Amino acid sequence: MTAFRALILRDLKLSLRVGGEALTLVLFFVMIGVIVPFAIGPDKALLARLAPGIVWIAAFLSMLLGLDRLFRADDEDGSLLLFRHAAIPLEAIVAAKVIAHWLLTALPLIVATPVLAILLAMDWDGWWRAVLSLLLGTPALVAFGALGAALTVSLRRGGLLAPVLILPLCIPVLIFGVGAIGAVGAGPAMLFLAAISLVVAAFAPFAAALALRAAAD
Amino acid sequence: MTAAAAARKPNWFSRLAHPGRFLAWSRPVVAPLAALTAIVFAVGLWFAFFNSPEDYQMGDMVRVMYIHVPNAWLSQFVYATMTAAALGTLVWRHPLADVAGKAAAPLGAAFTALALYTGALWGRPTWGTFWEWDGRMTSTLVLLLIYLGIIALWRAFDDQLRAGRIVAIVTLVGALNIPVIKFSVDWWNTLHQPASVFTAEGPKLAPSILTPLMVMMAAFTLLFATLQIVSMRTEILRRRAETMARQAAAGEGG
């Protein structure tokens, strides 16, 4: 457990001291919210209706962008090799990295949702449900992302491939995520979203660790 | 024969699947299989065009079914084949399994694309739309995207052995989509008609339609088998040629 916590802290410290990446991600997230009104016109009623979808698309794209560096840096400086021979199993290490990655990429986006809510004319209730659905759904995105990053870590030109691979798998998350923001049938959608997140977060570390091992030998 | 010798002697299945043996036994199989495919196709098309009734609502449009349903069936069958191959790669590290998986991916993508294409052609005059975001269509589209992702992943690796294991993991994860496609028409009651051929109570179609449909499905499945064997042979030979080129280059250098 100590090693597990140390790994999470290590990733958090690394990211905070290098700095800037979480902020860039939030900036990107908010910028999508800024661009959309230009693309579809500043009609407030229309924006409010599309807001759940836009929030999720923005979160989706921001998380896909951040995905590549989940294992890349560790692969480059050789930490990944050490992880494979560490005292705790590789699956636990992947799980720790998934938690750290969620804290670094998903949490800042959720904190930034009020800005998007104002830009997209969401009401108080809609914003609250958006935060809840992002909280429930983003763990699945990060877990799928870890799988994608692990699959492509040994590829030098794998940057775009990981999103292409995991996007089809993330579609259910998007369906229920947007459903959970909508006013009708939000309850069941929330439960489905939570179920997907739990299942994916439980299984993805094993699949990702398998992929990391397969990539290394 | 002692027990040790029996244990060492590979069973018939392993012998059949050894790449060299595979090349040997598959060479004489290809031509007859192709001929059989052509014959069954001829019979099936004759049934489909001249010896099956028109639909009382759709008229001649119903004949699209004889192309659409076999392709849709194969889109899932090929993925099941790839899943079996992926298990072979991951569990037994079987040398032929990743060749089979690699050969099947483009074929499956082609069948899925054809199923979507014929479905659109069929949907336009009968449902009045090329595309609808209905459960089965959406999940089939996701299947096509998964196929294309897998093909892209195969092409991204230089080392095909490593690619085999990585792609096998993706294939197994993507297999989650297959039951979704199969049951989509039961879970979401939407535009696409519910299961009518493979149901628990048996086929729900009239024999005059079911016979041509079954013949066409057999024809398309045979087509897949033929193409699969040919492309597996090509892939094995390509890998061999690559190895020989590398050996030749090493010989020149040394």
Q: How are the SSEs placed, and which strands pair?
A:
The complex is a heterodimer of chains A (217) and B (254).
Chain A: H1 2-18, H2 21-40, H3 44-66, H4 69-76, H5 79-84, H6 90-119, H7 124-151, H8 161-181, H9 186-216
Chain B: H1 3-8, H2 12-17, H3 19-50, H4 65-92, H5 95-127, H6 135-156, H7 160-174, H8 177-187, H9 207-253
Describe the structure in your own words.
The complex is a heterodimer of chains A (217) and B (254). Chain A is mostly helical. Chain A has one domain (2-216). Chain A is 85% helix and 0% strand. Chain A contains nine helices and no strands. Chain A has helices at residues 2-18, 21-40, 44-66, 69-76, 79-84, 90-119, 124-151, 161-181, 186-216. The longest helix of chain A is centred in the last third of the chain and has 31 residues, at 186-216. The radius of gyration of chain A is 18 Å and the shape is elongated. The model of chain A has no long low-confidence stretch (mean pLDDT 86). With 254 residues, chain B is mostly helical. Chain B has one domain. Chain B has helices at residues 3-8, 12-17, 19-50, 65-92, 95-127, 135-156, 160-174, 177-187, 207-253. The chains are: A mainly alpha (217), B mainly alpha (254). Chains A and B meet through helix 8 and helix 9 of A and helix 6 and helix 7 of B.
